[in-house]
Specification:
Chain A: It is an enzyme of class 1 (oxidoreductase). Chain A: Its EC number is 1.14.13.149. Chain A: Keywords: Oxidoreductase. The complex is a heterodimer of chains A (about 325) and B (about 270). Chain A has about 325 residues and is mainly α. Chain A is about 65% helix and about 0% strand. Chain A has a two-stranded antiparallel sheet. In chain A, strand 1 and strand 2 form a beta hairpin. In chain A, helix 4 packs antiparallel against helix 7 and helix 6 packs antiparallel against helix 10. Chain B has a single domain, classed as Up-down Bundle (Ferritin). The N and C termini of chain B lie far apart (about 50 Å). Chain B contains 9 helices and no strands. The chains are: A mainly alpha (about 325), B mainly alpha (about 270). Bound molecules: fe (ii) ion (2 copies). The site of one fe (ii) ion has 5 residues of chain A, from helix 4 and helix 7.
Chain lengths: ~325, ~270
């Protein structure tokens, strides 16, 4: 049995560390709810990295130049690496990668809904890099100061690579926008499709967000969904101008009074539908993951069996 | 020797070198493509990272080699074809890669078998080419041999793991080796192009690479507890194979997928 007095002392020390903006490390005591919140968030983030490999991987074999192909392979590889860092960060909280993957495969943990939209043209590789990686950076830069040390450190590494991804996506669109008429149309059509889903990446409006307040108090989350969404819009409007492409939002307008761009309201019904599993690719993405995992089962089993046999042989020889 | 004879000798030399470089470039390009097909399909995340790594190395080799083949060709014809022209605008019968690299990823063991046999070949090849009289080729090979040493380790490690692992994995690994093995003869078959570059000290004659390849592959198979497949080489029509532009049926689909977008927008920049 734990001594309640001790728990109280632990809680006081934890609260003091949070107030002092100190980092919580795996060996430190932490409230169960803090641990659960972090596991849920880091797992969702890790799952998003590996599910996100699919929509872009969809264009690797058709990449239109060898240079773009190399950049895209490297990008999808980075996302696998991000998944690895994040599953390791979750492991420091006491849950293994296998357990989390099972929860993903059973549909019991989420990943970012953005990846439930299809990549139907090459320009989508550009739009994902520019808008989706762009939104991810906006979300993730503040996470580099997250109170949980391993998560914050993983985010520092990840953010560096995400900003490469965003630049590369921008570069794809920039080239298309200055290419043939067909290429230009392809770029605009893609931005038209990805703009609203990318705004939804910041989650529901603050008035309806369930997890935000406690996460802010714990220094896990630093800014509200709406604040981050505003930052993102303020960043992409001038970038769209530089691209020579338009954003499909009639309400988009500079507000001198607020010092920010005004923008329209995403279709939150669509957001809820995709979240519930009814987006264009929800089933496909999970099915793809499960299939890769199941088809790899005999390989992982062989690796374990070989490792066990090698150890036994070493022991026998010793 | 008269100047004219000199000219025709060097033209013949350049023609062979261009054809040779194109063969090496096509090998790397197609091998890279097959691995790239596996993005987000690996048996575990570590393999997604590793296979992408190898695919990227091979693509880098392909780009250097195709770019160089294009510039050698330009010296002869006055017409420059870029790496993308060569990758995207040639038809199937103009590709000169060996057929081994075309073999599909039927399961993870097939991927491992193909990579083992091919990277062991590339290792001997690039080791020899690092001493080529052609500086460019020597430079490309000198860098690539370090990459390929890792590819060979990676494939060897998996061959041993699968061969030694479970009954199922051992059977699958043996089946995959047996399927790929008949295509290895082509790696070591010489012809006029190979003999010409070897004679002028620019390239390697494939039969010379075989003994070291045999020793290495036999060593891995022994460690994996796998037998060397006893299957005869695939013979092509009239002795023709990948080097002469006669490929497997699967290759046409690979090219259709790879080239479609590029060819749909003639002259566009990406
Ligand atoms: Fe990422
Ligand atoms: Fe990314």
């Amino acid at each position: 049995m734990t001594d309640p007095g001790t728990d109280e002392a632990h809680q006081r020390r934890f609260d003091a560390m949070i107030t002092a903006e100190e980092r919580i490390e795996p060996r430190d005591w932490m409230p169960d709810a803090y641990r659960r919140t972090l596991i849920r968030q880091i797992a969702q983030h890790a799952h998003s990295e590996i599910i996100g490999m699919q929509p872009e991987g969809n264009w690797i074999t058709r990449a239109p130049s060898l240079r773009r192909k190399a950049v895209l392979i490297a990008k999808v590889q980075d996302e696998a690496g991000h998944g690895l860092y994040l599953y390791s960060a979750a492991e420091t909280l006491g849950v293994g990668r296998d357990e989390l993957l099972d929860l993903l495969h059973q549909g019991r943990q989420r990943y970012s809904s953005i990846f439930n939209y299809p990549t139907v043209t090459w320009a989508d590789v550009g739009a994902i890099g520019w808008l989706v990686d762009g939104a991810a950076i906006t979300n993730q830069v503040p996470l580099c100061r997250c109170s949980y040390g391993p998560y914050a450190r993983a985010m520092v590494r990840i953010c560096k690579e995400e900003s490469f991804h965003q630049r590369q996506g921008f570069d794809i669109l920039y080239t298309l926008a200055r290419g043939t008429d067909a290429q230009r149309r392809m770029a605009q059509e893609s931005v038209d499709r990805w703009y609203w889903p990318s705004l939804m990446m910041f989650g529901p409006p603050d008035s309806e967000s369930t997890h935000s307040e406690q996460s802010m108090a714990w220094n896990i989350k630093r800014f509200s969904n709406d604040e981050l969404r505003q930052r993102f819009v303020d960043m992409i409007v001038p970038q769209a101008e530089a691209l020579g492409l338009t954003l499909p939002d009639p309400a988009l307008k500079w507000s001198a009074e607020r010092g920010h761009y005004d923008f329209g309201t995403p279709d939150w019904d669509e957001f809820m539908q995709v979240l519930k599993g009814n987006g264009p690719c929800n089933r496909q993405r999970l099915e793809h993951r499960r299939t890769a995992h199941e088809e790899g089962a005999w390989v992982r089993e062989a690796a374990r069996a070989h490792a066990a046999k090698s150890r036994a042989r070493q022991r026998a020889a010793a | 020797m008269s100047g004219r004879e000199n000219g025709s000798v060097s033209a013949e030399r350049d023609t062979a070198l261009a054809a040779y470089t194109l063969r090496l470039g096509d090998d790397a390009l197609v091998a890279s493509h097959r691995l790239a097909e596996l993005a987000a399909r690996g048996p575990q995340l570590e393999e997604d990272v590793a296979l992408a790594n190898i695919s990227l190395d091979l693509l880098g080799q392909a780009r250097s080699l195709l770019t160089y083949a294009g510039s050698l060709e330009e010296r002869l014809t006055g017409v420059l074809r870029t790496e993308d022209d060569l990758a995207y605008l040639r038809d199937e019968d103009q590709f000169a890669n060996c057929r081994l690299v075309e073999l599909p990823n039927t399961d993870f063991a097939y991927t491992v078998a193909r990579q083992l046999l091919f990277s062991a070949y590339q290792f001997e090849l690039y080791t020899a080419l690092a001493g080529s009289a052609d500086e460019t080729l020597a430079g490309i090979a000198g860098k690539a041999v370090k990459e390929v040493a890792y590819h060979r380790d990676h494939a060897s490690g998996w061959t041993v793991r699968l061969g030694d692992g479970t009954e199922e994995s051992s059977e699958r690994m043996a089946a995959a080796l047996e399927a790929a093995w008949p295509y290895t003869a082509e790696l070591f078959t010489s012809d006029a192009v190979f003999r010409s570059v070897a004679a002028s000290g620019l390239g390697a004659d494939p039969p010379d690479l075989r003994p070291a390849w045999d020793v290495f592959v036999d060593g891995v198979l022994a460690e994996a507890g796998l037998a060397r497949p006893e299957v005869p080489p695939i013979t092509g029509p009239a002795g023709m194979g990948g080097r002469q532009g006669v490929h497997t049926e699967a290759f046409g689909y690979l090219l259709a997928e790879m080239q479609h977008l590029h060819r749909s927008h003639p002259g566009a920049a990406w």
